[in-house]
Amino acid sequence: MLSTIAVAATALLPLALAQTESNETVLGVYMFHRHGDRTAKSTPPANLTDLGYAEVYTSGQYYRNRYISSDATYRINGINADLVKQSQIAVSAPADTVLQNSAMGFLQGLYPPVGDAMGTQTLRNGTNVTSPLNGYQLIPISLVSSGTGSEDAGWLQSTSNCAKATISSNNYFNSEEYLNYLNSTQDFYNNILPVINATFNASQDSFKNAYTIFDLINVALIHNSTISGADLLTNETFFQLRTLADAHEWGLAYNASDDMRAITGKTLAGQIVEFLNTTITGKGKSKIGVQFGAYGTFASFFGLADLPMVNPDFTGVADYASAMTFELFTNTSATISSTSYPSADEIYVRFLFHNGTTSNTSEPVAYPLFGSGMEALSWNDFTNGMNNFAIGSTEKWCTECGNFTGTCAAYAPASSSSSSNDGSSSGSGGNGLSPAVNGVIGAMVTLAVILGLEAIILLVGGLRVVSKKRLQSPVSSLSENAGTKA
């Protein structure tokens, strides 16, 4: 999968950022990052591999060189270059082993060990105490319940806890698009059964489990020296597996006429706005936010932000260690302090994405959000665009999801005899959900609509970007795209 990273990352070269050209000052950054290479979802528990560890560590090194080190090309104003200052950074991940470990690996690259000289303290009695592991730096990772067990889950919405999102995604399985894929690709899946029959039986071998089947084979092609039925896995066949998995997961993660299935993208948008707004109102005290999460959130956000209009590759599954970044900046290279902090109308936001592991030889690319055609948006335009779909409060989440038990009981419809809360939904106003609020939301119990969920799908997991035009005819694309490298 990694062989296609460079192609995807340079898809829109006119908007690529030259690291050596910057007359700006970056005020803050929010990043959403996917985990590194892992074992297959269909053989739980999934675990981060050594390759995955290396991928996220490499990504952390790149973003250190971009934003943090003393000679960083887009250095965040006032950020500590070597010794981490905990108040400047906020990191979160769901309670999921793969995602938590990926976050830790990334942070090791972002803020590496400082060595004996900087990692030694002298106590009052004169004793010198040196930090273990060559001055290894400990950075807390906030755990959120929303998305718990994402990489072991058999279905995207099973970790969202949002009732209406579950209904919306279930609707995909009754759609004409899904049924056409299911019927037209059955012979294709029958032909590859010898490759997967140790894990999937004949009744499971269909487009219904397109992503899980692809994921199992993809992991095997990366890690296994021998594969049952390997002669059936031509480049064309593997490309078709990946293309079908992309179509399947996009259908579950986003639908323009029913965007409730994009609940994770809506929640992420609220978190992004909240963090960057805190950077502005706190005059730079909060400088970098990093969240690790599953690929479904990428797809949901891409759809909500109209990114497929820019490039249809955004309808594919994002690869391992992919990252999207929101840079908050002002158009000046002058020194900025709390007493000379720019006003909101002097601040801009730029969106960047990189498919797969980011490195000095494969850098992120800037893309215009919301169909604006503009690489950079004013802070007001950015927040207006995000707030068209962002969920920025617990009340709004409960109301839109149709969840009214537990914590959400406070926002139940007026039919309940208890008096309603004075604060009505804030609509488009808002701050994103903090990790603390996210944790509360994630703990909510969804009572409706999970009947039959177990039988729907085996799973979801690893992103890959392919052109949407290749999804038009899943069977015919085998011959049309012969020789495409996976």
TrEMBL record:
Q: Which residues cross the membrane?
A: 440-463
* Pfam family of the protein (one): His_Phos_2
User: Could you confirm whether the keyword Membrane appears in this record?
Assistant: yes
Extent of the signal sequence: 1-18
- Keywords per UniProt: Membrane, Signal, Transmembrane, Transmembrane helix
> So what family is this one in?
Belongs to the histidine acid phosphatase family.
PANTHER family named in the record: ACID PHOSPHATASE-RELATED (PTHR11567), PHOSPHOGLYCERATE MUTASE-LIKE PROTEIN (PTHR11567:SF142)
Protein's name according to its UniProt entry:
Phosphoglycerate mutase-like protein
The organism is Zasmidium cellare
Taxonomy of the source species: Eukaryota, Fungi, Dikarya, Ascomycota, Pezizomycotina
